[in-house]
């Protein structure tokens, strides 16, 4: 892949990414964005999308990418370096033996610990490079699965924010893929021949997210729109739907033609 032959994402995927970036005001003039490049399909598509947006957008911003090697330096990253070079994106590698740490600790929640360590490393790398935004590749399926996990295990219907500021680090996290389905991202990655790395995590087969994904797949078989319905519910939380000890006046349900509330994913903090 050369800089003269940079692939172009499908129009439908570019529209979804552009919608998220515009609706949540993810990028401002002069922003410096560090991409959390895991080597998976989502982060590769994210890098390609942001590189394309950088070329087309009247808003000037810069990009860099960081790969956190959870094996402590044993992962071959030459394909990722070549990919980033083709997009004119500076590429950094931060090795850390996260897999070994989890094995030694016999961690009961390996995904949570891994995510926290990787986030800390990415924040540090972003700061060292002078970046003020950290772009992560969470997609629509991740949003819905997180909402289900919170509902089942904490009794709260919520998911991570598309954009939020980390108060402890001062870094702002953006997730431009929140409107894009995982299967469509995967299809696009295969069509474009992106250099997806083999998955090296040994703890990924029996996690709560895998269970939530299985439940979601079963529900989607009977209702293909269920992911979008859950996404809509996250955006249109209504105080009238909450149970109140004092009781409330009965309100007629909205008709099918009534336009539901505008996006409520506008928070700037995130405790997940």
Could you describe the 3D structure shown?
There is one protein chain. The protein is an alpha/beta fold and 272 residues long. The protein is 43% helix and 10% strand. It has 9 helices and 6 strands. It has helices spanning 11-23, 41-56, 78-86, 98-105, 110-128, 140-154, 182-192, 208-222, 226-235; strands spanning 32-36, 62-69, 91-95, 133-135, 163-165, 172-174. A 6-stranded mixed sheet has the order 3-2-1-4-6-5, sandwiched between helices. β1 (32-36), α2 (41-56) and β2 (62-69) form a beta-alpha-beta unit. α2 (41-56) packs across α7 (182-192), α6 packs across α8 (208-222) and α6 (140-154) crosses α9.
What does the secondary structure layout of this molecule look like, with pairings?
Blueprint lengths: L10 H13 L8 E5 L4 H16 L5 E8 L8 H9 L4 E5 L2 H8 L4 H19 L4 E3 L4 H15 L8 E3 L6 E3 L7 H11 L15 H15 L3 H10 L37
Helix pairs in contact: 2-7, 6-8, 6-9
The structure class reads alpha/beta
Order of helices and strands: HEHEHEHHEHEEHHH
Shape: globular
- Rounded to the nearest angstrom, the radius of gyration is 20 Å
Helix content: 40-55%
Mean pLDDT: 86
Strand order of the largest sheet: 3-2-1-4-6-5
DSSP strand tally: 6
Largest sheet: 6 strands, mixed
Number of helices: 9
The proportion of strand residues reads: 5-15%
What is the terminal separation in angstroms?
A: 37 Å
Unreliable stretches (pLDDT < 50, length at least 5) are 251-272
Keywords:
globular, alpha/beta, disordered C terminus, 9 helices, six-stranded mixed sheet, 43% helix, 272 residues
């Amino acid at each position: 892949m050369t800089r003269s032959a940079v692939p172009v994402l499908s129009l439908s995927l570019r529209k979804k990414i552009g919608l998220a970036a515009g609706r949540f005001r993810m990028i401002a003039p002069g922003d410096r964005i560090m991409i959390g490049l895991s080597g998976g399909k989502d982060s590769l598509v994210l890098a390609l999308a942001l590189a394309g947006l950088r070329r087309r957008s009247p808003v000037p911003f810069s990009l860099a990418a960081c790969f956190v090697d959870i094996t402590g330096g044993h992962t071959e990253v030459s394909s990722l370096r070549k990919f980033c070079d083709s997009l004119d994106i500076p590429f950094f590698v931060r090795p850390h033996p996260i897999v070994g740490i989890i094995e030694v600790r016999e961690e009961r929640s390996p995904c949570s610990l891994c995510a926290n360590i990787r986030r800390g490393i990415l924040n540090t790398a972003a700061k060292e490079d002078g970046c003020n935004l950290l772009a992560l590749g969470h997609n629509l399926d991740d949003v819905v699965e997180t909402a289900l996990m919170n509902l089942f295990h904490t009794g709260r219907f919520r998911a991570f924010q598309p954009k939020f500021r980390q108060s402890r680090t001062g870094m702002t996290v953006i997730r431009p893929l929140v409107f894009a389905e995982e299967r469509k991202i995967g299809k696009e990655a295969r069509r474009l021949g992106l250099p997806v790395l083999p998955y090296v995590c040994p703890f990924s087969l029996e996690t709560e997210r895998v269970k939530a994904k299985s439940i979601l797949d079963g529900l989607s078989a009977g209702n293909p729109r269920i992911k979008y319905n859950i996404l809509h519910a996250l955006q249109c939380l209504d105080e009238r739907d909450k149970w109140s000890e004092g009781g409330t006046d009965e309100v007629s349900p909205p008709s099918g033609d009534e336009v539901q509330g505008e996006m409520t994913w506008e928070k700037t903090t995130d405790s997940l």
